[in-house]
């Protein structure tokens, strides 16, 4: 069976991605499975640039059809920050980072706390050397205080108006249905069906 490499070391993300791609005629492997133990430095200025960089680098190295994702949070009142720096907004934990975000939005009223999660998946085909990308977006608002037990990252402070809940208040299945990541990977699945 043809192999697809998912260019991640994340123990949490890999099973979720595998779930979305289930049923496709590919053996799905991750970086650890193919003995790659280094990270490509995410030097791009956009999610798309970083996803493409990772897919190309690992795809050229291994010769496998390679998929890489980059994702993060954009806040309008902060001119798009934390953006590609979402995971590195400040040292410490996810909680340190969302608390910094709340501090940086101090005094900003509810209607101006517009934000979105974005995810871009890049697909590199080593045969044609071509890259395709799929994007998913989830629009929302940053709250004034954290709440919710599920998810990770900025989920405790990301409110989805249409569900009247924070993403940290959703189960994985509920979140996947509407999330940036779910949307981007479902589009990716459609493209893989053509391979
Ligand atoms: P990654 O590149 O997908 O690992 O995401 C980069 C960073 O963006 C994460 O470390 C989180 O801080 C943030 N992020 C991306 N997606 C989500 C999400 O679904 N919920 C909360 N935070 C997210």
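-> sequence recovered:
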């Amino acid at each position: 069976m043809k192999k697809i490499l998912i260019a991640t070391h994340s123990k949490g993300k890999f099973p979720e991605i595998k779930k979305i791609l289930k049923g496709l005629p590919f053996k799905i492997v991750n970086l650890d499975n193919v003995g790659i133990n280094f990270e490509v430095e995410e030097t791009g200025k956009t999610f798309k640039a970083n996803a493409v960089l990772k897919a190309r680098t690992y795809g050229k190295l291994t010769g496998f059809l390679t998929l890489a994702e980059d994702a993060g949070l954009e806040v309008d009142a902060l001119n798009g920050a934390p953006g590609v720096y979402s995971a590195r907004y400040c040292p410490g934990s996810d909680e340190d980072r969302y608390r910094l975000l709340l501090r940086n939005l101090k005094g900003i009223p509810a209607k101006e706390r517009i934000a979105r999660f974005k995810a871009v998946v890049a697909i590199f085909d080593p045969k044609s050397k071509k890259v395709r990308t799929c994007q998913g977006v989830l629009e929302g608002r940053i709250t004034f205080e954290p709440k919710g037990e599920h998810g990770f990252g900025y989920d405790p402070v990301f409110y989805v108006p249409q569900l009247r809940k924070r993403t940290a208040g959703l189960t994985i299945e509920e979140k996947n249905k509407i999330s940036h990541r779910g949307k981007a990977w479902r589009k990716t699945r459609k493209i893989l069906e053509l391979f």
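The mean pLDDT is 95.
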